[in-house]
Amino acid sequence: MPDERMQCSSNRCEATLHKDCSEQYDGSCPRHVCFYCKRGASFHRLKHLMPACTQCFLQTNRMAEPVDPSKTMISCSIWPSTSEGAGLAHGIEEAFRQLPLPYTDREFNIDPIKTEELESLTKPPTYVLLKRNVYIVKHKCDGDAIEGGCTDCDPPLACKTMCSCRSVWISCSRACKCSNECTNRPFRREKRIEVVKTQHCGWGVVALESIQKGDFVIEFVGEVIDDVTCEERLEDMKRRGDQNFYMCKVNKNFVIDATFRGNACRFLNHSCEPNCQLEKWQVNGKTRLGVFASQAIEVGKPLTYSYRFKQHFGPRMECLCGAANCQGKL
């Protein structure tokens, strides 16, 4: 009979095959013989050696391997990759190449622009660190206002409130007759501070130690330029669209620009209710600008001073200091 079927003689196999079809396998059940190499295997090892096709009854021994070794179902060559089957795969690497996703061997790269944006969120803007002012223009020493320095500051006064140099913002020098206990040499030791990211005002500075009222905190240093150079740099900043300014005008033709070179003082933020103030001092014949505490400051508190900002171009900048008496604009 044309429809006569034969059942596999194995007790655990339920496969049936037309009698005429069985002749292609020399009387062997196709579930026990690889369709490609015609090699067989015992039934209890069949699931490990010959995975079954997901589309038909064929078994494969070596010519195809499952992508996941824990599974025994793949597609044979009768069902090419253009259909629902995955096609013939010689090993795991080739199986991955047959997946619909593109096969590439490139590492994950981040756009350099995005990298810079991420770094700007975690690192403060770069600059060249300076310990003292660098004069870009010619400068002559201003000279001490008091010839010979102070003479009436012996201990226990040690150049405190009545010091003739301190009263006119002059730091005691070698010309003074004061002792080693002199307290009027503020630019010798800076306070411990740290540059941190703030919530609303970009980068800022906080105190790492307790600071008393009147204490010297840090010197404002940078490139000393004249008024003409200052205007030129401001025009360049306008063309670049810069929003951050690090300049401080001390006198006529004496501007300290910390845009490119300076120290951590450049990150002190403005406040309409500041806890620090800028003071101009004479130190060994040179004009220097220092940040002094105008009140007691606890550890971790932000350090601020009033910018007395003069807008050179564009609308006035919004103030985000958060003080109770905030003016709203710089």
UniProtKB/TrEMBL annotation:
Alphabetical list of Pfam families matching this protein: SET (PF00856)
Ranges of residues in domain Post-SET: 315-330
GO cellular component: chromatin; nucleus
Keyword vocabulary terms for this entry: Chromosome, Methyltransferase, Nucleus, S-adenosyl-L-methionine, Transferase
Domain AWS: 146-191
GO molecular function terms attached to this record: histone H3K36 methyltransferase activity
Record keyword Transmembrane helix present: no
Organism of provenance: Brachypodium distachyon (Purple false brome)
Domain of life of the native organism: Eukaryota
Keyword Methyltransferase carried by entry: yes
Gene: LOC100839831
The protein's name: SET domain-containing protein
Domain SET: 191-308
One example of a Gene Ontology biological process annotation: regulation of DNA-templated transcription
Gene3D superfamilies reported for this sequence: SET domain
Annotated localization: Chromosome; Nucleus
